């Protein structure tokens, strides 16, 4: 089996590393890569993320094709892809409804829509990490619409690289992920911009401890990637953002009214998170 | 030298552990503890955080007295404290203006106002951690108002337990800390409450990866402790919260208007944080 990875950044590059470790188990002949940025392709090759970089025409011949590019790119590539009739296409975009809607009907059975719940704030080939996918969750979305042989192939690969699979519909996925991933990114970007807009951010930032570091980490994420996530999951992100604005406005009202009992109750309610994770 | 720690939770308990390790260097005879909750005192003792627990009257006889309790408690204790004339009182509250204003003038030269920039989301004696203070920053606030011998004593102790000292005025401290610590807590509490208010939070939370875990960690912090922080730093927390609301409203407008270029620019601006930390 030849596996092709389109997009050799954090996700695609780490996938290349993960697949190399299960080569025997999956009987992988070759791990090929493609990146529209020739510098990234070169870098991925010299970092050993993939074994060979080929052009877009050639990578389509692979039996398994991963799409590990920003969401707008996935939509575009799906329109233009000419895979072999037996190829499995696995896209790993972070929002699903628009991507799935954009799959040409003739291609639909071959496409496995998935979302690996892992990543870091870093991006590009240098951000690739060994073990990124290990013991993480991958959401398989709208599985009923892809052919069993392609779904099985995708499951074999995700299982081999150590992932736990969860099935979900596209709408539910996008709603949940807006809350658990997209909203945290918006909040982190906002926090960073608040501090950076101060007169001497360096004086303030020199005091940062673990709390601020955790809360601002996501604000270092790729604006290009996140632009396309926010674009494609706009409706649900707006819903989540409205909920956050309501909570923050509530906290503000309690502070303004010096309503310390209810502010304490608001925080105690948040403490319940400990029961779940 | 006898050192007394009032409050044997995360901060006071970890301090007990840290002081035990530098006992010889600081010529510490005994590390005593007091906690208004008898169960906490007992727990601190059995965890070896302090060597003996005494009553409030007895702990005041120590040459060095740490106040490691919620901010409202610090204000109260400072009103009632009857230390020896040579005792150094080191309070470690997370907001400074109100505490410093509350120091009785007769006591002022003996009180060192400090803020160690470390902690975790856990609280109580069981949360005490060896090494919590090591290599962390401690802010010494309004040092000009305490007597040199007390300031030197406090510096010797902070230096012995591995802390880096920064001096600052109370107003500047409270402003900076509202941005770097208090606002991140408000955002984290809000995020947790957004998800917990959903119909099936457990389904959503089962998908949580590193991003959400980091962003929600602070929401597990003690509501009692944070109630008093928000109360005492209300003005600056409200300012910081308003800045965050403005940023979030801006992001919302961009999403609503589908202004992807400016949304990308907003995120790219946040990325500049990498230049500082």
UniProtKB/TrEMBL annotation, chains A, B:
<dbReference type="GO" id="GO:0008977">
    <property type="term" value="F:prephenate dehydrogenase (NAD+) activity"/>
</dbReference>
<dbReference type="InterPro" id="IPR046825">
    <property type="entry name" value="PDH_C"/>
</dbReference>
<dbReference type="InterPro" id="IPR036291">
    <property type="entry name" value="NAD(P)-bd_dom_sf"/>
</dbReference>
<dbReference type="GO" id="GO:0070403">
    <property type="term" value="F:NAD+ binding"/>
</dbReference>
<dbReference type="InterPro" id="IPR050812">
    <property type="entry name" value="Preph/Arog_dehydrog"/>
</dbReference>
<dbReference type="Pfam" id="PF02153">
    <property type="entry name" value="PDH_N"/>
</dbReference>
<protein>
    <submittedName>
        <fullName>Prephenate dehydrogenase</fullName>
        <ecNumber>1.3.1.12</ecNumber>
    </submittedName>
</protein>
<keyword id="KW-0560">Oxidoreductase</keyword>
<dbReference type="InterPro" id="IPR003099">
    <property type="entry name" value="Prephen_DH"/>
</dbReference>
<dbReference type="InterPro" id="IPR008927">
    <property type="entry name" value="6-PGluconate_DH-like_C_sf"/>
</dbReference>
<dbReference type="Pfam" id="PF20463">
    <property type="entry name" value="PDH_C"/>
</dbReference>
<dbReference type="GO" id="GO:0006571">
    <property type="term" value="P:tyrosine biosynthetic process"/>
</dbReference>
<dbReference type="GO" id="GO:0004665">
    <property type="term" value="F:prephenate dehydrogenase (NADP+) activity"/>
</dbReference>
<feature type="domain" description="Prephenate/arogenate dehydrogenase">
    <location>
        <begin position="1"/>
        <end position="277"/>
    </location>
</feature>
<dbReference type="InterPro" id="IPR046826">
    <property type="entry name" value="PDH_N"/>
</dbReference>
């Amino acid at each position: 089996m030849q596996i092709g990875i389109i997009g050799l950044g954090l996700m695609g590059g780490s996938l290349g590393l993960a697949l190399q470790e299960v080569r025997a188990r999956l009987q992988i002949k070759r791990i090929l890569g493609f990146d529209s940025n020739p510098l990234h392709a070169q870098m991925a090759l010299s970092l050993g993320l993939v074994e060979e970089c080929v052009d877009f025409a050639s990578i389509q011949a692979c039996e398994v094709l991963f799409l590990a590019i920003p969401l707008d790119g996935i939509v575009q590539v799906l329109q233009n892809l000419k895979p072999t009739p037996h190829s499995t296409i696995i896209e790993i975009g972070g929002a699903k409804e628009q991507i799935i809607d954009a799959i040409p009907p003739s291609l639909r059975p071959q496409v496995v829509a998935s979302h690996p719940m892992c990543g870091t704030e870093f991006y590009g080939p240098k951000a690739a990490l060994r073990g990124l996918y290990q013991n993480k969750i991958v959401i398989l979305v709208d599985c009923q619409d892809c052919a069993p042989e392609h779904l099985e192939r995708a499951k074999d690969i995700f299982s081999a690289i150590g992932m736990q699979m969860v099935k979900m519909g596209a709408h539910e996925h996008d709603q949940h992920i807006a809350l658990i991933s997209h909203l945290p990114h918006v909040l982190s970007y906002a926090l960073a911009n608040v501090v950076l807009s101060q007169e001497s951010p360096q004086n303030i930032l020199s005091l940062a401890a673990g709390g601020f570091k955790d809360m601002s980490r996501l604000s270092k994420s790729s604006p290009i990637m996140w632009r396309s996530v926010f674009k494609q999951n706009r409706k649900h992100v707006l819903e989540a953002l409205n909920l956050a604005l309501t909570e923050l406005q509530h906290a503000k009202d309690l502070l303004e009214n010096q309503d310390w009992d209810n502010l304490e109750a608001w925080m105690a309610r948040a403490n319940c998170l400990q029961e779940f994770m």
